[in-house]
Amino acid sequence: MNLKSNFSVAFFMSFLLLLVTAKGNSQSKALLKLEVSKENPHYFQTEDGKPFFWLGDTGWLTFGKLSREELNTYFQDRKKKGYNVVQVMVLHTLTVKNVYGDYALENGDVSKPLTTPGNDFKNPAEYDFWDHVDYALEVAQKNGIYVAMVPVWGTNVSSKDSKVTKADVEKYAKFLAERYKNRTNVIWLNGGDTRGNEFMDIWNAIGSTLKNNTDQLVTFHPFGRTDSSENYHNAKWLDFNMFQSGHRRYDQDSTEGAFKEDNYKFVLRDYALKPTKPTLDGEPSYEGIPHGLHDTLQPKWKDSDVRRYAYWSVFAGGAGFTYGNNAVMQMFHKGEKKGAYGNKDIWSDALNDPGAGQMQYVKNLILKFNYFNRIPDASMVVNQGEKYDYLAATRGEDYALIYTYNGKTMSLNMGKIKGDKVKASWYNPRNGKLKTIGTFNNKGVQEFNPPGEKMDGNDWVLVLTSKK
C-alpha cells in the first residue's frame, strides 16, 4: 500500500467535498414567509406567528443602477439601520437596462422578458437583467430584507403612447410568478404611482395573475394622496392596503376632501374597513425632497417631517411605515448630469442622512410591547389638536403611547390601560432613548409637559405602562 498516494487521494476527495458543500450553501437561508396576522389582521406576521413590523425604504432604482458591489453596500447599510423591506421598481421604463447594459425586455415588449441561458456573471453571454435581479434578491435575503417589487411602473401603462395590453401584462406577470414564486422574501406592489381608477383591467390582470400563481403578499402602490383601498380593497388579489401620503404641504394641496399632510387619516379610514386588512404609508414626503416636489426653490423635507409621518400613521393603527430619501430613491451617482427633483447628493452619502437612521426607533418602540393587541385610541387625548398640534395615541392593555410633533403639553384621560398606577417616561424619536419621569395615578385627567420648548420638530413620545 502506498500511504503517500492514498493520503493524496484522500486529501483531494476531502477538498472536492468542501467545494461541493460550499457551493450547496452559497444561497443564504430563506426568510420566513410573510402573511397577514391571523390573531389581528390589521398587522403582519411571519409564518411562525411572530410580529412583523414593516420598516421599508424606497430604493426604487436599485435593480437598474446599482452594481453587484453596490447592492451589497446598500442592503448591508439598511440592515444595520433596522429596515426589513425595500421597495423597488422592476421596470422603471420598458427600455430599462442595468448598470452592465443588460436590457430587461426584448425591444421594449413587456410580454417578452429578455433572458439568456446560465447566470455566470463573468461571462456576459450568460448573464442578463433578470440574473442581476436574482442576485439582488439573494443579497437582500442574506441581510434579512424582503423586497417589495413593482412589476411595471404606472407611467408605462398610463402614458398616451403606451401600447401595453392586458394580454401583455398577463404573460409578463406569469413570467414573474414562475421565476420568483419560491422566493420567500418577495412582496408585490402592483401599480406604481398611478391612479387606481384608471386602466383597472391592467392592474387587476397583474394582481390576479400574481396571486393565482404565488402565495406571496400583493398590494397596490397608488398615486399621491390616494389609497389602494379606494379601488381595490375588495379585490381578491389585494392582501393589504398601501397609500401614498405624498410630498406636498398643507397649503400646496387645494384638492377638496384631501387628507393633505394628515397621513394618519388614511390609516383610520382603512382601519375601519371590512374585511380587515393591514395598511401603511408606502410613500410619505421624502427626506431631502422639495416641498411639493417640482419647485426646487422650495424648502426641503427634513428628518423631523419624516418622523412625524411615521409616528402619526403607525399610532393610528398602521402595520408599518416606508421611509424615503430623494438621493437614495433614485440612486443618484457622481457624474450624473442632473438629478430628479433638484437632487445633487450621492446616494451612498445620503444613506446616512439623519432620518434614515431614526426610523428604526419607531419599530423598536412598537415591538417592545404586546404587538397584536395594539389599537389606535383618540379618546385618550383631551386636547388632540389639528395639523402640527395633533397628538396621536395608541395603546394595548397595559401600555399607551402618545406622540407630539412639537412638544405640545398633553392632557390625557387616564384609566385606559390596566392598573391603579402608571409609570411614565419620555421616549426620544431622534435617538431611541427612554427617560423615566415618575409614577402617576391612573384616573382622571393628567397633564404631561414634554422636555424643551414648544416648536416644530421637538417631538416626543409619552410612554405609559401599567405599574405592577
From TrEMBL:
Question: Any idea where the Putative collagen-binding domain is?
Answer: 375-464
Q: Does the keyword Transmembrane helix apply?
A: no
- State the coiled-coil residue ranges: none
Taxonomic superkingdom: Bacteria
User: Which Gene Ontology MF annotations are present?
Assistant: hydrolase activity
Write the signal peptide boundaries. 1-22
> Which SUPFAM superfamilies does this chain map to?
(Trans)glycosidases
| Key words, A-Z | Hydrolase, Signal
Give the Apiosidase-like catalytic domain ranges: 39-372
Q: Which Gene3D superfamilies match?
A: Glycosidases
Please give the name of this protein. Answer: Glycoside hydrolase
What is the originating organism of this protein? Flavobacterium pokkalii
